[in-house]
Amino acid sequence: MSMLIGEVAQRTGISARMLRHYDRIGLVSPTERTAAGYRRYSDADVQRLFRVEGLRSLGLGLAEIPAALTDEHFTTRGMIDRLLERSRDRLAQAQELVSRLEQVHASEPEAWPDVMRTIGLMRGFEAQDASTRQRHALSLPDGDERDVGVLVEAVLREQDPNAAGAMAWAVARAGDTAIPLLMAALDSPDDDRRHRALRALEKIGSPAALQVLTGLAEHRDPLLRGRAHLARGRSGDAESIDAIVELIVLGTGDIEALEVLEDLAASDDLAPRIAHALAAAAASDDPAVRRRLAGALGSLPGDGAVTALRELAEDLEPSVALTARALLHAAPSQRAVRARRPAPG
Questions:
Q1: How far does CA 91 lie from the centroid of its chain?
Q2: CATH of domain 5-70
Q3: Cα dihedral value 210, 213, 218, 222, nearest 10
Q4: What's 139's DSSP letter?
Q5: What local confidence, expressed as pLDDT, does residue 344 receive?
Q6: Which residues face 41 on adjacent strands?
Q7: What CA–CA distances, in Å, run from 242 to 237, 246, 272, 281?
Q8: Which residues, given as ranges, of the chain have pLDDT below 70?
Q9: CA dihedral of residues 314, 318, 319, 325 (deg, nearest 10)
Q10: Which backbone phi and psi does 39 adopt, to 5 degrees?
Q11: CA–CA separation, 153 and 185 (whole Å)
């Protein structure tokens, strides 16, 4: 069954803007068309979308994902390391299941059908085949609070991209009930566990989840701090501008950072402030950083952005100067489109 972009956004929790960006950079593009010419996402397109989201949840950047999707020999040693880690996780899960069964047995429960249901749910997420775990997540009914604890634990452990995407979707459908468990995982000593909890909270996207996300601006984990400032920026918090500019400097989440700055720059009061912050950061010695900042300035309105681009148009690094000049000669709407394209390097 194929779906229009709005249906995909509603069912996956991925914004239509991000879906269009994936399409624009050739990462996930709808491959079918209706009789009227509208583009539709096939089942295979949605599967690829889940895999992309899963890879992002594991920490891969948009520039790295195409290689991971197409090259089976991509970072062979890293893949072997992940397989070893996954095997150890399965052993730990089996030991945990034994422990839970012992606890259930010792408690002499009266509601045995509920106990068996929970055990069945756990076993489904412990299946050796990743596609089985994925189907298991997608088969869960909406809003059953009995599933939340097992579901959250599964999404915090899952390493397969497709299964991880499906589980994150299932957690999002569970809504605010999952938030306390995800909050606890944000303080885990395990980086992957923290990052999976973060992605799950972003998927939920409710006011309560947003409140948790915006409260992470001082977290020790730089990824959590960065995502917190993006969430604050989306809420209109101008105090996060410098931190969002820093994401562009670092090249981590720079596409989303640029989108947030564009939205904030719609305010006449904030556009000069944002342009000034980007121009100040352009003093970097790294040409790749200056190219990214030129792209960001090219998407902003106002004289401040134009002035900063004129300075970058005289940059001694030819690629930086060419980027700035091209953006200066483009109309404002065209500048915004060009600026969103990932800068080389």
A1: 29
A2: 1.10.1660.10
A3: -140
A4: T
A5: 46
A6: 3
A7: 11, 6, 13, 9
A8: 1, 57-60, 71-80, 82-84, 86, 97, 99-115, 143-144, 146, 331-345
A9: 40
A10: -80, 140
A11: 9
